Amino acid sequence: MITIRDEIDTDVPAREALLDRCLGERRMSKSSERLREGRLPAEGLALTAERDGVVVATVRLWHVEADGKPALLLGPLAVAPELQGEGLGKAMMREAIWRAACRGHGAILLVGDAPYYERFGFTPEPIADLSMPGPFERERFLGLELRDGALQGASGVLKATGALVAADGAEGLRRRAA
Q1: Is the distance from CB of 121 to CB of 110 less than 8 angstroms?
Q2: N or C: which end of the chain has fewer CB within 10 A?
Q3: So what's the pLDDT on residue 24?
Q4: What is the pLDDT, as a whole number, of residue 175?
Q5: Dihedral sign, CA of 4, 124, 147, 118?
């Protein structure tokens, strides 16, 4: 049985190993990573899936803004290769979107495979005037408004706005205002 739950501090090493396994070293060079560096994921929006005590999937959402319009940046989403194609990624996405909506967030952005993410309502239209900080593939930059008009008028380059990682590097509940 697989359980989707809030990520805890002890998940982080297994999460990083899973991301390396699924995405390789190139993940650290992406523009999305620049928005995550030194930041904590949004409160209640770092999810882990586990089976028999082993981390088998992960997704996090991060605070960003453009032109003063707040949003969340999703990523990365990773599922253990041996479980890909079984619906776990879809379950993780639905849980992340539902939790973000329940917490009152207005929009989620991501850089990813359009045919995969379109099934969840992500399209390029709401973020047509937004850019990532650094190189990115425009056709893979997608948005989902959780509230109508949440991204209306947003333009410019995304900036990270989330809480900073504590000075000792711990990702736990110790948060500082950005």
Answers
A1: no
A2: N
A3: 83
A4: 36
A5: negative
Tell me: the pLDDT tens digits for 11-47? 999 999 999 999 887 776 678 888 999 999 999 999 9
| Site of tokens 């995304």 | 158
> Which residues does residue 2 pair with via DSSP β-bridges, in sequence order?
51
Whether residue 81 has a cis bond before it, omega within 30° of 0:
no
Place of tokens 């380059």: 157
The CA distance from 136 to 150, in Å, is 23
Q: Which pLDDT score, from 0 to 100, does residue 176 have?
A: 32
Check residue 65 and give left, alpha or beta (phi > 0: left; psi -120 to 50: alpha).
Answer: beta
Q: What is the mean pLDDT of the chain?
A: 91
Residues 6+ positions from 111 with CB-CB distance below 8 Å: 30, 31, 32, 75, 132, 136, 137, 140, 141, 142
From 143, 134, 76, 82, select the one nearest 109 (Cα to Cα): 143
Please name each of the domains of the chain with its CATH number. 2-160 (3.40.630.30)
pLDDT digits (tens, 9 = 90+) for 79-103: 999 999 999 999 999 999 999 999 9
